[in-house]
Amino acid sequence: MTDQTHHDFQARSPRSQTQRLDRARNPAKLVNDRPQEIFFGVAAITRPDGKIEVGFCAHDGTYSMDFAMHCIEAKRDAAKTLSDFVIMRVKEYQNVRNVKCLGAGISKAAHDISPDLPARMWAELDIPTLEFERNPVEGDIITGEVDVDEEADAMARKCVVMYGPQKQPLLQVGFLNEVSVDAAGHAILCTLEQYRNTVRKTTWDATMHYAERLKKRGIRMAFLNATPQGGGVALMRHALVRLARLLGVEMKWYVPRPKNEVFRITKTNHNILQGVSEPDERLSDDQTEMIKNWIYSTAKREWVRKRGPLAKIEDGGAHILFVDDPQMPDIVPLAKEIEPNRPVLYRSHIQVRADLVDGAPDSPTAEVFNWLYSRIKEADLFIAHPVRDFVPKLVEPQKVAYLPATTDWLDGLNKELRFADSRYYLDIYNAHCLESSQPQLAFPARDYIVQIARFDPSKGIDTVIRSYGELRRKYYKDTPVHQTPQLCIAGHSSIDDPDASAMFDKTMDLIENEYPDLASDISVMRLGPIDQELNVLMSNAKICLQLSTREGFEVKVSEALHKGIPVIVTRAGGIPLQVEDGKSGFLVDTGDYGKVAEYMYELFTDKELYAEMSEYAAAHVSDEVSTVGNMLSWLYLADTMTREGGKKLETNGAWINDLAREGAGIPYEEGEPRLPRHYKT
Asked: Which residues form the Glycosyl transferase family domain (predicted)?
């Protein structure tokens, strides 16, 4: 590749600052001098002689601060030549000037030349890259022509306005309350080939089998749930819609308008169904009416109109509906009233205490589930986490199907981060700790243990703290503090979770009252919506805990295993499905903090055991917990149930993934990792 530089970047960091930062770049210490945060604009055009003109613009969030223009010669592969050059120049700019690029705008012309460039920017440099069309008015009003440096400047400015106060692309909820994933499609994070490489060939081939069938038939799918951000449901839907866009299948996602008064009620219902609520909490008739009115206010205003998800199919409505939330049960009868033959599937994504529903008919749990089921009984399927004890006897057996929660190996929570980016997000975490008067992590000087979860009554956070207290007081009582591990408890917030603040306060009270001697080594944080912050906390942890007392599936366990982090988890809900006891982690009974401490000490002191467990964990994660595996199941259901005017599917407790593989004629191969079937708590 030949590079002719027309104009190079001029901005330089002061020599004294560069020298100081070079001295600070030491893997043995945590760098607290965070880089300046900037944005980039990139534009490119192919000249008549075949050479590529490339323009760069660096923007500080207020105004453009630097630019460069190059002309490169692409003798063979123009796409790779351009992407290699842009990656090289942006990486060099960040390293030399100690800056961190938060986002980049790229012109459509540059993306057309190098289709993989945005995905490479995300995967290799941790830069979300947003594509924009060029506006002719920005150049000559008559000709619409503009130089690449000017276009790069426009791309940077367009990128900046897509970001919010959290320094993340703004969440977009648009017309009809449709969640516009990835900044309304501007952000391009992944390619189809990258998704193909996250799973085994059998899983990919089965997924493509159904995708092609649905595309040919023009089937429209719609998901409906309560919130677009926070919690596992939203994370899965963002990834699923992202992949659907790449596959070319029509899949949309809708949420109602938020209402805090209702979220308080639905969160209480959530706790009641899990059996972790206060004894006197009940669901009243007034509250059920309030939930119904909340759902109907959005549905009848937005979703039943022409081309809305609940509209008749002939008016552009969805061919199949997935109601993905116990907060919205009234959608099911409304959808059936409008289009009786349209399949409506209900997904139950929490651990329902079926023992209380079946064995204590006067209990709050039975009351809430009976109310819930009276609304969803018309649904064609009841999809639950793959644990039989999550499904009360009231549910018709022929409608029961199992599907685990999933995660995305390419998103900010899971992708591999460069050393510099890892340092950046650890610095952000420690800065947040400083602002909140919480202890900072001393990594890499000290190891740490992590539990990443919402601050919820069912997450066993008290057991986490007691386990750490037992580890320090019993096993490390004579060890110098700087040679002991720290504890990190962190999680995102969800807009429909009003319990989080109360649980955070209870956590801090426990530490201050019972473990004041360890308080300086326990870092407890509620974090904003920066996925990479949780990623780096998980990736650098020595051990991951998930000590829930009640749990649906908690895919954080699989995320840790995928990174090769040994886990210690409770036998709660669907968690044990993900762990091979003694091979990829350890299983303990809920509340057994003594055993947790014993296993933690064993992992810290037995290096051979740790290495074996880490290697085994990373190699034995099932495709079923990935976005592609999740897509396979939903596409199978959409293809099967929309044929012949709405074919009834009797699942009788089958795993949807198994049905999908059988339907595609691609059975499981010997040795292919699978979650255990027929699990019962």
From this structure: 444-618
